[in-house]
Design goal:
It is a single chain. The protein has 2 domains: 206 residues, no CATH class; 132 residues, no CATH class. It contains 10 helices and 15 strands. The radius of gyration is 27 Å and the shape is elongated. Helix 3 crosses helix 4. A hairpin with an 8-residue loop joins strand 14 and strand 15. Helix content is 32%, strand content 26%. The strands form 5 sheets. Strands 1-3-4-7-8-2-9 form a 7-stranded antiparallel β-sheet, sandwiched between helices. A two-stranded antiparallel ribbon has the order 5-6. Strands 10-11 form a two-stranded antiparallel sheet. It holds the Pfam family NA37. It comes from Bradyrhizobium vignae. InterPro entries: Nucleoid_associated_NdpA.
Length: 355
């Protein structure tokens, strides 16, 4: 999504509050007028929004859930056609919805910034909602005196804010919503390896959006779920090593363009594990049918297969080399089989270099 030419025509702020100790709602404090910012202040605001929504690592396009009355997208559509008086009243509904969505006592309050404008080329209409936590700080004056300022938000170093933006291309009538609309969120908690780190209350309960499930996310879900299942099985350490090597082989070495639970279990798991594995993965919301393999979200994990021991001893190798050249098995120190367990590693190669 491109927000570089973002323009903002109307902007208002409200305040939402943390719930009381008994989790009762504290009503929001509503702004009563559209803000008029100086050119410098507006440029700063635009820069913060563009920098956040243009960050591929902490922003992403969302799937818009089916519409229900009073949802965030419906409010956005109303805001685009509202006059200034109705804009003020309608924007309060976002403060109400966010107050309701923040059901946990540990979610902090903050400022809710609602704005409309346009962005992109060709330009599309935009409705944006920012939830920004406030903080305090010092600034110096021209005479080098110090002022203490409370309730600062969206400062250059501030990371405690989230943005939801709805973009409308004008191509579809209101009766067909969400057709013609796209949604993008920014959340500092999100990362390329953990898209689901974004605050659920903000994008789902408040904005009515969902993280789209694509092949990269499903592949990561397959990797993490299968690894969890293997690590939880009641088998020897060397068998776990074999199973994990099979997982890495299936994802990186196997040239099949798809992933499927039945295929993996039949090739790499013991017969008595297959039913439990498929039940486990289905509970993790991984589909039973084949899905396209896309390892882009787990490239860092697939570069090396690692074994870790105490006192910072590690063995690492590319998954294909691990499968071909390394054998791992557990051995008991004494003949009774009840002594300390050691690990025997056989590498079918000589030492090439050492430090």
């Amino acid at each position: 999504m491109f927000f570089e030419n973002l323009t903002v025509d109307r902007l208002i702020i409200h305040e939402v509050h943390r719930r009381l100790d008994d989790r009762q709602i504290v009503p929001p404090t509503y702004g009563s007028q559209i803000l008029s910012l100086s050119a410098e202040a507006m440029d700063f605001f635009r820069e913060r929004v563009v920098a956040a929504l243009g960050s591929n690592s902490q922003s992403m396009q969302m799937a818009i859930s089916p519409l229900v009355g009073g949802c965030a997208l419906e409010i956005a559509a109303d805001l685009l056609v509202a006059d200034d008086e109705n804009f003020i009243a309608l924007s309060c509904r976002y403060a109400d919805k966010l107050t309701s969505a923040q059901s946990a006592r540990n979610i902090p309050g903050g400022v809710v910034v609602v704005f409309t404008g346009s962005a992109g080329n060709p330009a599309r209409r935009v409705v944006g909602v920012i939830k920004a936590e406030t903080h305090s700080g010092f600034r110096h004056t021209q005479t080098l005196q110090v002022q203490y300022l409370k309730d600062l938000f969206l400062g250059p170093q501030t990371k405690l804010f989230k943005i939801g933006a709805f973009l409308y291309d004008g191509s579809a009538p209101r009766s067909t919503m969400p057709a013609g609309w796209e949604a993008v969120i920014y959340d500092k908690q999100m990362s390329p390896k953990n898209r689901e780190g974004a605050a659920n209350y903000f994008y789902e309960s408040f904005l009515g959006c969902a993280i789209p499930v694509n092949s990269a996310q499903l592949t990561r879900r397959f990797f993490e779920g299968t690894r969890e299942f293997i690590n939880g099985t009641d088998v020897s350490d060397e068998r776990k090593a074999d199973l994990l090597t099979g997982l890495y082989t299936y994802l990186k070495v196997d040239q099949s363009p798809t992933l499927e639970l039945a295929t993996f279990s039949s090739h790499y798991l013991d017969a008595d594990m297959k039913d439990d594995y498929e039940t486990f993965m289905l509970a993790k919301s991984f589909p039973s049918n084949a899905v396209a393999k896309d390892t882009s979200d787990i490239q860092g994990y697939l570069k090396k297969r690692r074994l870790k021991f105490s006192r910072d001893i590690q063995l690492s190798a590319p998954p294909d080399a691990f499968a071909e050249l390394i054998e791992v098995r557990s051995i008991n120190v004494d003949a009774s089989g009840v002594g300390q367990t050691w690990t025997q590693i056989t590498i079918r190669d000589r030492v090439r270099d050492q430090e």
